[in-house]
Amino acid sequence: MTKIYYTSFNSKIGTVHIASTALGVCKISIPAQTKKEFLAWLQKKFSGAELIETSTKNRQIIDELNRYFDRRLVKFHSRLDPVGTEFQRRVWLELKRIRYGKTISYKELAKRVGVLRGYQAVGKANGSNPLPIVVPCHRVIGSNSRLIGYAAGLKTKEFLLRLEGALPV
Questions:
Q1: pLDDT of residue 169
Q2: Does residue 64 contact residue 17 with C-beta atoms inside 8 Å?
Q3: CA 6, 8, 12, 13: dihedral to nearest 10 degrees?
Q4: What is the full DSSP assignment across the chain?
Q5: What is the pLDDT of residues 58-93, one digit of tens each?
Q6: I need a labelling partner for 125 at 20 to 30 A (CA). Which of 65, 98, 105, 152 fits?
Q7: Active site (annotated) includes residue 137
Q8: Active-site choice (30, 137, 141, 161)
Q9: Residue 33 — left, alpha, or beta (φ > 0 → left; ψ -120 to 50 → alpha)?
Q10: Mind listing the pLDDT tens digit for each residue in 103-115?
Q11: Cα 111 to Cα 106: distance, rounded to the nearest angstrom
Q12: What confidence tens digit (pLDDT) does each residue in 14-50 have?
C-alpha cells in the first residue's frame, strides 16, 4: 500500500499543506486550498493510499520553503514526485527552468514546450501544477506583462514575484 506523508505549516503567505511519497514531494497546497480540499486531492490522486500526518518526512521541503520566504534560497533541492500527464510534466519541467527573479509569458512557455499555439493547454497545465513555488508557475505572466492566472490568487502571485525581485517593490 502506498503511503502519503502530509503536514501543514504556517508561512509568510498563510497555511501551506505538503505531502510526500517515498519518492519525493507530490503536493504543495498554498492558502487558496483548504486542508479538506488538500486531503480530497490526495485521496483522488492516490486512491487507496494510507495518509499519514507527520512533519518528519517533509522537514527538508518545509525548511527550504521557509528559507525561500526569507530570501535565503533561490533554488529548491527536495526530491519531487508530481502526479500528472506526460504533457503536464513537460510543462512543469519547463517551469523549473525559469530562473528565480525572472518571468516569461504563456506564449513563450508554449513555444518552449513545442506547442506554438497551445497557450490554453499550457495555461491549463500550469494551473494544474501540484507543486507551486517549487515548480514556479507564478513566474508565468501575460504577453502584455500583466499578472494573470494563478490558482492561489493574483495577490499571492504578486507577493511571490516581488519577493523574488521580478516586480518592483
A1: 58
A2: no
A3: 80
A4: --EEEEEEEEETTEEEEEEE-SSSEEEEE-TTS-HHHHHHHHHHHTTTPEEEE-SGGGHHHHHHHHHHHTT--SS--S-B-----HHHHHHHHHHHTSPTT--EEHHHHHHHTT-TT-HHHHHHHHHT-SSTTTS-GGGEE-TTS-----TT-HHHHHHHHHHHTSS--
A5: 999 999 999 999 999 999 999 999 999 999 999 999
A6: 65
A7: yes
A8: 137
A9: beta
A10: 999 999 999 999 9
A11: 9
A12: 999 999 999 999 999 998 889 999 999 999 999 999 9
Contact 104, 98 (CB under 8 A): yes
Question: What residue ranges define each of the domains in the chain, with the CATH number in brackets?
Answer: 3-69 (3.30.160.70), 86-164 (1.10.10.10)
pTM greater than 0.90 (yes/no): yes
Which three three-digit cell numbers place residue 151? Answer: 490558482
Rounded Cα–Cα distance for residues 120 and 148 (Å): 13
Residue type, 139: R
C-alpha cell at 150: 494563478
Q: Which amino acid type is present at position 44?
A: K
